[in-house]
Structures
1.
Amino acid sequence: MVDFIGNRAIYKLLNESLKKGTLAHAYIFTGPDGIGKKLLALHLAKSINCLSAKDGLSFCNKCVSCEKIESGSHPDVQLIKPDGKVFKIGQVREIIRDIYYLPFEGNKRVFILEDAHTMNEEAANSLLKTLEEPPASSMLILLTNNLYALLPTVRSGSQVLKFNPIPENEIERYLVEKQNVEPEKARKAAHLAEGSLGTAITFDDELFHEGQKWAVVVLQSMVSSDDSALFNQIKEAVKDEKKFEFYVKILVSLLRDLSIIGIFEDEKRILHKELLAELYDLRKRISEKEIQSIFSDIEDLYMKKTLNLKLDLVLQNIILKHRVQILREVI
Ligand SMILES: [Zn+2]
């Protein structure tokens, strides 16, 4: 069996449906990015079409059919992305036409649509009839990270399977055992990935170290009044939205470590072990109450992301506010 981690309930359900021959004709796989939706859709397509398949979700990954699916050249298994930012009506019409062809060489035609929520109403409506009366020789799998952006009629015409984030320890184990990632790095990658194996696998060591330094400076600036380089650094980080989000996650994980130091006094649980000296120093100067308060402000920062506010200014205000509070507490 090929690796698949997390979401056992969905895995089992599809496995049973394959065994009993009760697969739905249309599925929606929904959940955050990087948690295995596409992978499981491809596993399903391989299991259906593998030349030496046994029962259930099982395939050899060696036969011509498995190889063709893997390389994207199987005529009966199509992985379709939106052409540009959205699925256009023409693209969907083409899929609808193709869906009525009998399999060319496999057992069943499988159409996997990535980012299915990007279908506009016209495109989605044209798909509806096919969802209601699909040919038995084809199946549709819609992948999305935004279920409610799909038309309700599309949702109700398909079996919706909700994928959950993968538990941190499963991701960590996978990285160490299957990807030969060094254990400390695997711990960090798994923690910051928030349940997404895809994110954990593409963990960028260098960016992480930069983010660590950045987050330490932010926290240190709350306990001192030296701003010289800080606000420029914040401005710089905010320019790249993805990077900034990653940095803020690191900042949150540092706050978590600070809290652990205070409450458990247990270094084993600490994520940023290489920063112990800095963490202990910070912990001496920031109370638990204050840490919790910074936590909630940073969470608020995430919320404000959607409000189009200047995040560097918001973060600056958080720093200044807590600096005042911390200094007051010390006095
Ligand atoms: Zn095979």
2.
Amino acid sequence: MRVILADVAGMCFGVRAALRTLDGVAHPGETTIHGELVHNEIVLTQLGARGFRMVGESQRDPLPETRDVLITAHGISQRERRRLEEAGKNLIDTTCPLVTRAHDAAQRLQAEGCFVLVIGRRGHVEVQGIIEDLTDYEVVQHPGEVRAYGKPRLGILCQTTVPESLVQSIREAVAQRNANAEVRFLDTVCQPTKDHQTALRKLLQQVQAMVVVGGMRSNNTRAMVAHCQEQGISAHHVRCAADLNPEWFEEIDVVGLTAGTSTLDESIEEVRFALERIAHDKLAPVA
Ligand code: SF4
């Protein structure tokens, strides 16, 4: 069995920058990470072991106990920023600039008088940060949810990690069901996500199965798994090498390997090594 690694796979610059900022925090025990830094269980376990205080994304209502509060790469709304600052918190901001760009796009569309449609996952922390500053909006997860909004101007933007194919199908549905509306579209899918998806599409032409490494709640990892399945390629979502099952590859000659934008390099290497070992064992079965 041959193992092919995608041309682009794994951690994006936004998450790497956030982790570098954390490396520079002198007193982890006196710093609260406001939500999950990334949706990757291995990274979160490592941060916990270093002593950082962490609160779950759904438990951010009570004010953090520490003065230093780290804002994750997913960003927060201006409303939440004000609440923390007015409570005297010192914010260590690791919001990815490409998430900030999505916030700015939403504000621009609203300022232009548009009813704002945010393509993304309802309840996702990045989407939450964007909509908390909007007054006239709706989150759209798939084309079937699109309706006639009865508004003269519609403005569309995207969560940074949604697949471009989903964006396209939702845009088409919006145009179809709102034929009389003026529709503005601002493409806020981030370049690392696009690069991952382009590399994935290329790899899908060459393999019979795919292994996607990433956190179980990572939006972009799950989107890549779903894309493989839509293309008729069986995809296995694993967090680490221990999740691999050699039986998945019994009938496979070529397997692809890719990873989400919050996956550590060491996790990808570990899975690649384990896949190579499975390939080796297939060549030399036990007598
Ligand atoms: S996935 Fe994109 S938007 Fe999110 S942190 Fe990475 S580069 Fe930034």
